[in-house]
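ok so i was messing around last nite and threw this chain in just to see what happens. nothing serious, just curious
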Amino acid sequence: MTGKVLISQEQIQAKADEIGKQITEDYSKLDEPLLLVGILRGSVPWMADLMKRIDIEDMTIDFMACSSYGASTKTSGTVKIMKDIEEDVMGKNVLIVEDIIDSGITLNYLKGYLKNRGAASVKICALLDKPTGRQTDVQGDYVGFTVGDVFIVGYGLDYNQKYRQLPYISCLD
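result:
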């Protein structure tokens, strides 16, 4: 085990059930298609669990790779897009799926970026929220858990590309 388990695999699965039902309820009322955009690499486990629980027929997925961190534990403040989405967002409801809202710099940038490309709406679904790290006023529309000012790893979150495979959320020792 790496560090202390802060959020267990069972807690994450229960939260995926809860949020998946809420997303289904909210988006099934709308006429526009739903596009889930996972932010690589950290969102992969969360998005995989979440999308299985969203019961919307007109839903597609895509991925973006972008960061304001690089190999550091502190944001650089500059967002770099390494892989853009392939799906056309015009007229679609876009739900950005992220592992953690920390500084908010990347998510704030992406919301504007996707809105400028014609998305009907852009919302954020994050497994974790770390409000103490916030440098913008971006908020999650669907948030699993709030965490304190510790460096989190596991369940997709990494330190220098390590520990993503842990089936729980832990803080790095």
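not much to say yet. Residues 9-27 form the longest helix (19 residues).
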